[in-house]
Specification:
The protein has 206 residues and is mainly alpha-helical. The protein is 49% helix and 12% strand. About 11% of the residues have low confidence.
Length: 206
């Protein structure tokens, strides 16, 4: 395959296609095609700007100055998206991840990308199983408080779908399993001062 297409060559091809549409289609069709091109340009422009911003942040390891130390224990200290390396910051960003997934360029497997999406949710949730045939992901939502009503479930489901659309577009539906409530903790306090005073022996007070 030849080298990557240059911006100039791609621009010429887009103009040729629009010119052919202008000669054969009505104005509304031409305007719609131009809108598509404009939206795509804005989308990719935003993605490139985001990449430049992330790589330019201190500690990204891509700019001038000292880079993060590397050694036998460095990999263990830096998890996915920790920013210890430039790629981690990019893969953890929703906009950049969506662009990579759009073109099949995201280097992480599906379970890892699902975990990234779930980490962004306001309520803790874990992957309880994904059905590749239907595209449905089952989520076990952990809740220490709340009523578990339908409104809360709908909010959690929509938040999950929004995050998964960026990190794991293979997921097209979400089913929530019954919430697992954290057990109540037994509160053990000190003896009340009044009780301690009543229980003291006569003549103790001076």
């Amino acid at each position: 395959m030849s080298a990557a297409r240059t911006a100039e060559a791609a621009g010429r091809q887009v103009e040729e296609v629009l010119d052919r549409l202008a000669g054969t289609a009505d104005r509304d069709t031409v305007a719609a095609a131009e809108d598509v091109v404009r939206v795509l340009m804005e989308f990719y422009g935003s993605g490139l700007a985001r990449i430049v911003e992330l790589l330019g942040r201190p500690g990204s390891g891509s700019g001038p100055g000292p880079h993060p130390a590397s050694g036998p224990g460095s990999a263990a200290r830096s998890g996915p998206g920790s920013g210890a390396e430039p790629l981690g910051a990019l893969l953890a960003d929703e906009l950049v991840a969506s662009l990579l997934n759009l073109h099949g360029l995201h280097p992480e497997d599906l379970p890892t990308r699902i975990d990234r999406a779930l980490a962004a949710l306001p309520q803790p949730a874990r992957n309880a199983g994904f059905d590749a045939a239907s595209g449905v992901l089952r989520l076990a939502v952990e809740a220490s408080s709340g009523c578990g009503c339908s409104g809360t479930q709908d909010t959690t489901r929509q938040a999950a779908l929004d995050a998964l659309a960026c990190f794991a577009p293979e997921v097209t539906g979400v089913e929530l399993e019954p919430a697992v409530r954290a057990p109540a903790l037994l509160q053990i306090g000190t003896r009340p001062p009044r009780a301690a005073a009543l229980g003291s022996a006569p003549g103790d007070a001076s």
